[in-house]
Amino acid sequence: MPDLQHQTALDWTDHIHRIRAQDQAAFKEVFAHFAPRVKAFLVKSGADLQMAEECTQEVMATVWTKAGMFDPSRASVSTWIFTIARNRKIDMLRKRRRPEPEDLFWGPEEEPLAEDAVVLQQETKRLAEAIRALPEKQRHLVEKAYFGDLSHTEIAEETGLPLGTIKSRIRLALDRLRHQLK
Amino acid sequence: MTKIKHHLNDALLMAYSAGTLPEAFDLTVAAHLSMCDECRAAAESFDATGGALMDDLDTLDLSDDSFAATLRLIESAPTVSAPRKRTKGVLPAPVQDFIGGDLEAVRWRSIGMGVKQAIIPTAPNATARLLYIPAGCAVPDHGHRGTELTLVLQGAFQDETDRFGPGDIEVANEDLYHTPVADIGEDCICLAATDAPLRFRSLLPRLAQPFLRI
User: Residues in domain ChrR-like cupin (chain B) (predicted)?
Assistant: First the structure.
């Protein structure tokens, strides 16, 4: 049985499904939880308060409009919103869309397996706990890589993050998606 | 498609996920991820790392009007743009986005010895180019001041380190001097990104460098 924390992560997945069905109450809860984190991320990576405020609103509006593309077998809601915020930040700096890989998403006919989604959400939770438990020095390096001033040449080729399990789960989800797309 | 043997390293995947790479590198990484599910899964697990870090930040309050302003944005938003169609061409989708089409949209310029290139306009801190190496021909031997990423889109090339086929990406840095030679069977098309000018051994390409922007 998933414990309470895992349940919380799954609840957000359910919120996104409700947002797909235009549920404004669900959106309000997602906004209340995530918007202050998105704003913090943007300020931490160098945006001023005014820019961060506007950018956060755009990110949250994208959560609404793109809810149909969220894939819980490949990302948690936190992960997904992080990618939207990161892309929006880059787009604003470059005034051009960030190059993204070819889109891979489930069509309206088929959905990812519920079991895949549950396992992925649990793995994401475990990863978050592992990151919290990193030695101070290593955690600091990871934060520096994500919030600004570490270039790719300054990042170690082996980051030492425990990504093996979550990576193989995402890989599995991609295989199933590719199979369905054929 | 043959199995991809040469992948991105963690440093590049993490920087791509963090959003700190130069645009030319973003483009090359996105092109490789379009061809390589192994690296795509790795990149998405780095995204999960970013999500976890964002979750743990001290939150910042939004202005009182924020939620209402977001709803107004949603109302005024144009209908959701359709996701890009999957392409069957030689160039991966993110490259086609930049060029405005597949190979037919590329404007090649000769850089000598049969080799052609097309610069892809990106932000100036790094350069991206498509390279066309006729079967059996070589790119003049060169080294690197910074990092050079070379992704094979068609055909294959061989250099001092190994053979690189479709989807393979070579990550070269200061300690590699190499002479990529295209396989004899087919013309080779690559996407290459550099964050510093290349260093050519022989004089002729060195003289041509400023004009070719290599």
Answer: 102-193
